[in-house]
Amino acid sequence: MTNELDIFVGNTTLIDEDVYRLWLDGYSVSDAVARRVRSGILEQTGATAAVLQSDTMDHYRTFHMLERLLHAPPKLLHQLIFQIPPSRQALLIERYYAFDEAFVREVLGKKLSKGTKKDLDDISTKTGITLKSCRRQFDNFKRVFKVVEEMRGSLVDNIQQHFLLSDRLSRDYAAIVFFANNRFETGKKKLQYLSFGDFAFCAELMIQNWTLGAVDSQVDDMDVDLDKEFLQDLKELKVLVADKDLLDLHKSLVCTALRGKLSVFSEMEANFKNLSRGLVNVAAKLIHNKDVRDLFVDLIEKFVEPCRSDHWPLNDVRLFLNQYSASVHSLDGFRHQTLWDRYMGTLRGCLLRLYHD
Amino acid sequence: MPGKLKVKIVAGRHLPVMDRASDLTDAFVEVKFGNTTFKTDVYLKSLNPQWNSEWFKFEVDDEDLQDEPLQITVLDHDTYSANDAIGKVYIDIDPLLYSEAATVISGWFPIYDTIHGIRGEINVIVKVDLFNDLNRFRQSSCGVKFFCTTSIPKCYRAVIIHGFVEELVVNEDPEYQWIDRIRTPRASNEARQRLISLMSGELQRKIGLKVLEMRGNAVVGYLQCFDLEGESGLVVRAIGTACTLDKLSSPAAFLPACNSPSKEMKEIPFNEDPNPNTHSSGPSTPLKNQTYSFSPSKSYSRQSSSSDTDLSLTPKTGMGSGSAGKEGGPFKALLRQQTQSALEQRGGSPHRFCKRREFPFFTLTAFPPGFLVHVGGVVSARSVKLLDRIHNPAFVGIMGNTRSYKLLDWNSFNADEPETRDAWWAEIRQEIKSHAKALGCHAVVGYSESTSICEEVCILSASGTAAVLNPRFLQDGTVEGCLEQRLEENLPVGCGFCHIPYDELNMPFPAHLTYCYNCRKQKVPDVLFTTIDLPTDAAVVGKGCLIQARLCRLKKKAQAEANATAISNLLPFMEYEVHTQLMNKLKLKGMNALFGLRIQITVGENMLMGLASATGVYLAALPTPGGIQIAGKTPNDGSYEQHISHMQKKINDTIAKNKELYEINPPEISEEVIGSPIPEPRQRSRLLRSQSESSDEVIELDLSHGKKDAFVLEIDDTDAMEDVHSLLTDVPPPSGFYSCNTEIMPGINNWTSEIQMFTSVRVIRLSSLNLTNQALNKNFNDLCENLLKSLYFKLRSMIPCCLCHVNFTVSLPEDELIQVTVTAVAITFDKNQALQTIKTHVEKSLQRASTDNEELLQFPLELCSDSLPPHPFPPAKEHLESASSNSGIPAAQRAVTVEKASPVAEGNFRNRSAPPCANSTVGVVKMTPLSFIPGAKITKYLGIINMFFIRETTSLREEGGVSGFLHAFIAEVFAMVRAHVAALGGNAVVSYIMKQCVFMENPNKNQAQCLINVSGDAVVFVRESDLEVISTQQPTANCQPLCTGGEVTT
């Protein structure tokens, strides 16, 4: 006696959150059944393995049918085939677009192309996430990227409107899109200690201040591309380190203000010129695409690592960066105050976030 | 030219990509009604076209309006080649033809293709202007309301319940026409869908005419079925109960309505002149009673009908002998006379009177209080027929000649064929009627008919419950009359229906009677089987449960008559065994009555399957059932004896456990009070047996063994052992779950609002090696049990809940395949309140039952308020009215019809206030096989939903195999039903039923085909408490981003 056909269709589509998770995680039906058995559900419900198998198959079939709609979430809202309460629809979408930290760290900043897709095998092996799940996550990134890439208006809003994601998840996707578009390097060994959250935080600051959208909200790809003019102008900051007088003056202003307030004052005093040169040079180089990609590597090398080797407490870093940015306003010979603020305001935020073990 | 149909095509969305090059579609729409077709402009390069067409107007006869569906075809325009069809929408415009139902059909309909399934949606608005027309030779019956619900619909009051109406139409099945060889599967499927749509339209119209003739204005309990007879054709048949209904929520209309039942109807002033009516009856309705002349084939069918066994406990032999004398006591006879004379009074022509007397059947399963006086028991009849009999020599010639002609006009020919089927059914009904008579009953309630077809053999079945009815309802009377009636009859509440209608001294079968445990005045049987729902005023102890008897019998493959004979010979054994199983299981549950009994016998190539489902209850009026006693044949064998006693213990434990589980603890009643002797075991066991002569076991089992107070099961061979085992293998549902196949679960009345209707289908393949009766039985039993277990598991999040109206259908699509389809609804209930009710005893349960009554039937409540002067309305009623005058659709649901994307649609909504924030998500449409929605009031019936779909695939594997294919199809069917209901302005389907689900596969060819037929009543409901409205709105508010997002993208 074999079940040739076995289906269950409810007027309200039944969604089992646990099975949905197993499906999203890319488990085959038999693996999913095995995992469910291990969860002790048979004991709780008195069901048999056969019942579980049939139930899992049903859910998998439903999810398979829903997947097409999940690729364009507004369709899920308008379709008539599955009657799903709004809260459940939101859950389906949110979970479908959710991603694994381990996975996103692997592809963040990479081009979302066929080439990267081929590497998914390796990523799967490395992270222990099933290939199926990797594919789903990668395809999600790519799909969102394609849709919002050339769209006007706020990146986060666009994502939210077209994919109906929660605010939190939309912001994450904005970061992913932003990183993929600018191809920031995030995979180097010295960047490994950084979490996706760290990068997403930086991305948000950069989107807010460094993109075209920060100055003009009516251009295409406003939130995705960095403001070229701004990057061009950053060259002008070079004077802060190139002009010896200006550099000395800057240093003395900072040192005066911070004397007695830093536990690492002497280290700071000794390293000021190096640090300042590092930060200003990063700015000046951003005109080149390659240096944009290396932004985070540079920040770590030029600032985070030196401070860390001297054991600066985070609070001292904060005090220093605040003072370092603010003192420029007192430099009479320096004419690019607005430019400096646009650059340093964002950088300060990023550095503070990146400064941890 | 009595009607103008107006159609506007607004927009489409989510269309499939038809042009690979551009990834877009150039869509246009053809709107067809009858022979007239209109087209919209082509909307270039869009998957979301906005046609915004003019109003297409069709000027048509109302006859056509009833028969024809509106056919909307969406196509992709192609300059160089033929236009590609995207899909179709069939809209039944019948709901627009009577005044109280929908006034406009407007909304998004899934575009359906029989090969690809749903492909996008189309927004359509449909209206009908009817002109009054006094044509006396009318063929149409616009205005007669149809309800699938098998009780008086919630917002109506029955003025008169006229009785049985039936009709059938026959046509050739397009699938078997010669042209099918040269046309595409799509064309063939569409021809079939359209034909069936036309046939059901015609059938409904003809039934409507009969109702008008009876001076009714509605059909309740309308059940329409298709018999796919293959080569010999397609039969669409329907039965129902004609009524005169009054709408309750409009008191103004109610007052003068007492004398003119026609009041309700939009345009049929049939009062004006009785003559045209009788006149028109000639051509339009085939006279049933004239078709009784038995055809030559009858000699054969006589033989087969001898297999009709009487579950009714009606002995076949006994019937012939002086049945006139024992039809019932003088009182009953009087009642019957009254009924008849009442009918006579009203009836104009003698013909109508004859017909009424012919079949006093009612398809209702629940009744207005006071309607049901006594219940006799189940009556059923089966008959085996050969379908090729239709082609009797005289016929073949005509068939040959008209074959091609029929393709053009099928109407012209089929008048001949129905007679054969009519005669078949008439014969069965006659038998049912005589069974009822033998039980001293003048009527049959809860009546239904069904068929099972395999190749050229067809089993026709009919069953119902013999009953004595209150004649007052069958004649012209007012509500006051009914109320009076109730008072004056002074029937003991809650047990009256259990009292035997037959004469005690001249019983139609040996049964054991005791005085009613409730009123102690009348006699009651010790077990009661019925096909109706538990009367709301019945006194019940504890809860009920679903009881099933399952049985398979192998049969040799045979042809034609030999096959039919084999089946006929098997039938009585099957019925007998099914009955025994039911009885045993009932005892095992410690209960004494079955409601909603439905026995389905399915015929296959090499086997017969029997599946009986019913809801067991403990009726307080009936005596406590005895236990089950096992007796072995070889008492000297020690180990055997031990085994037996072990089994006995198990059985006793099970009974005790079940009593606890279902809270069956009837109050102790001392013997003196009852004043009746302890039942003798012999009679006891006999009572359960059908007296079919052919079943030898009766005698065998009648030998009583030692133990005198219990039902004896004798284990004399392995078969019997199996039976006992199978009794014990039925696992009770997990805690928190209850199940029943009736409308309401006895003992549970505190429903909360969550409902989940579902359909589950399973097909198993039997390995041909182990095909013995026992193996077969075990497989079938496991199939059903596993299916139930799966359901319990899937619905575990709803605990505590009850599966109501559990409806199993068995079919045998191929040699080794068994298909079981289950449709039911899971309803949650409040555990805490349930616990409280446990404490209630008989007296309390009586009380409770009567309050139930008000909740569930609304009947007495409305009756009372109506009989008051219309000024001081009870608040509940006022609420109800205001809601219904607002068209009764809550804002959330209204969003369906008033879609953001279609400002035109919005503009055309006459009085409906636009929702404050058009939530662009799709509105919820509830579906339920029950006639009510827990926690809600039905304020309006919008019309009957009767849809037939065919889906076919030639890429079965790609669509996820048979399961993927059928899963998607059923989901699509649900979607289309919901869309139609939403377009009518409704938010629920009640009395939903999937009448047919025929699935065929050919995995080798990678093909599959499925036919599904569903029906139900589209309604508008409003939640009873505002509190719940708020709580349902909350989730919508939570997903604000979703909603706004949706709007932007449309």
UniProtKB/TrEMBL annotation, chain A:
Q: Name one GO molecular function term.
A: fibroblast growth factor binding
Q: Which GO terms describe its cellular component?
A: nucleus
The record's annotation in InterPro entries points to: FIBP
> What is the superkingdom listed in this entry's lineage?
Eukaryota
Q: Name one GO biological process term.
A: platelet aggregation
Protein name (Swiss-Prot/TrEMBL): Acidic fibroblast growth factor intracellular-binding protein isoform X3
The protein's organism comes out as Heterocephalus glaber
Q: Organism classification, top ranks?
A: Eukaryota, Metazoa, Chordata, Craniata, Vertebrata
Automatic annotation (TrEMBL), chain B:
**Compositionally biased intervals (Low complexity):** 290-318
Q: Which keywords accompany this UniProt record?
A: Calcium, Cell membrane, Cell projection, Cytoplasm, Cytoplasmic vesicle, Lipid-binding, Membrane, Metal-binding, Protein transport, Transport
> Domain C2, which positions?
1-109
A single cellular component GO annotation:
plasma membrane
Q: Where is the composition biased (Gly residues)?
A: 319-328
One annotated GO molecular function is: calcium ion binding
Region (Disordered), start-end ranges: 265-330
Query: Superkingdom of the source?
Result: Eukaryota
For biological process, the GO terms are: insulin receptor signaling pathway; intracellular protein transmembrane transport; positive regulation of D-glucose transmembrane transport; positive regulation of protein targeting to membrane; positive regulation of vesicle fusion; protein localization to plasma membrane
- What subcellular compartments does it reside in? Cell membrane; Cell projection, Ruffle; Cytoplasm, Cell cortex; Cytoplasmic vesicle membrane
Q: Which Gene3D superfamilies match?
A: C2 domain
Which regions are flagged for Polar residues bias? 274-289
Q: Where is the signal peptide?
A: none
Role: Required for insulin-stimulated glucose transport and glucose transporter SLC2A4/GLUT4 translocation from intracellular glucose storage vesicle (GSV) to the plasma membrane (PM) in adipocytes. Binds phospholipid membranes in a calcium-dependent manner and is necessary for the optimal membrane fusion between SLC2A4/GLUT4 GSV and the PM.
Please give the name of this protein. Answer: C2 domain-containing protein 5
- Native organism: Heterocephalus glaber (Naked mole rat)
